[in-house]
Amino acid sequence: MLDKAVSIYISLKKFVEANELIRKHGGKNRPDGAPLLDPVILIKQAEYERDSGKWKEAAELFVQANKFKEAIEIYGKRDNLDSIMEICKNLEKTKNTPEIELCAKYFKQAGHHTFAKQAYLRLGDLKALMQLHVDCQKWDEAFMLSKQNPDMENMITLPYADWLRINDRFEEA
């Protein structure tokens, strides 16, 4: 009957009580001895908090439940780049490539070159990094990257020439 009792608590939005019940009657502990919270309950609670307008609490609960995409989207909609970077730093490339790409997308949209650069470097996506440098007009970094990767030189020449033209540097263009 544990499942039914937990289900009732969840439907009543009594998440603490549901976790307490699981802990008392068959819950597991983490290696440090703290109770392991049921991810299903965490997700339901996070959805409830999100729907109630408590986005920060919702995002934190999604992170605890390892639902990083949802947390990143919540922070991204509010341009909370520091929180996205905190999540991004803890993601593993092998398991969380789509989530790191989502982080990079939000950083790029917000015009935060440094954070986006870190995300692309974590992914090892040099083409996306070059496109970031070009889009943000970080020409020194773009040329440095093209020297290390000559096959990407064609990604920079025309955009740089256009930039020179727009900035009245016709001879260089």
Q: Could you please describe the fold and organization of this structure?
A:
The structure is a single chain. The protein has 173 residues and is an all-alpha fold. It folds into two domains: 2-125, Serine Threonine Protein Phosphatase 5, Tetratricopeptide repeat (Alpha Horseshoe), CATH 1.25.40; 126-173, no CATH class. The chain is 71% helix and 0% strand. The chain has eleven helices and no strands. The protein has helices at residues 2-11, 15-24, 39-51, 55-64, 68-77, 81-89, 93-109, 113-123, 126-135, 139-148, 154-166. The relative contact order is 0.06.
Could you list some keywords that capture this structure?
173 residues; mainly alpha; Serine Threonine Protein Phosphatase 5, Tetratricopeptide repeat; 2 domains; 11 helices
Write a compact overview of the structure shown:
With 173 residues, the chain is mostly helical. The chain has 11 helices and no strands.
The H-level CATH homologous superfamily of the largest domain, spelled out, is: Tetratricopeptide repeat domain
Number of helices: 11
Q: How much helix, percentage-wise, in residues?
A: over 70%
CATH topology of the largest domain: Serine Threonine Protein Phosphatase 5, Tetratricopeptide repeat
CATH architecture name of the largest domain: Alpha Horseshoe
Strand content: under 5%
pLDDT under 50 segments (min length 5)?
29-36
CATH class of the largest domain: Mainly Alpha
* Strand segment tally: 0
Radius of gyration: 23 Å
Secondary-structure element string: HHHHHHHHHHH
Mean pLDDT: 85
Structural class by helix and strand composition? mainly alpha
Domain unit count:
2
Task: Tell me, briefly, the overall form.
Answer: elongated
Distance between the termini: 75 Å
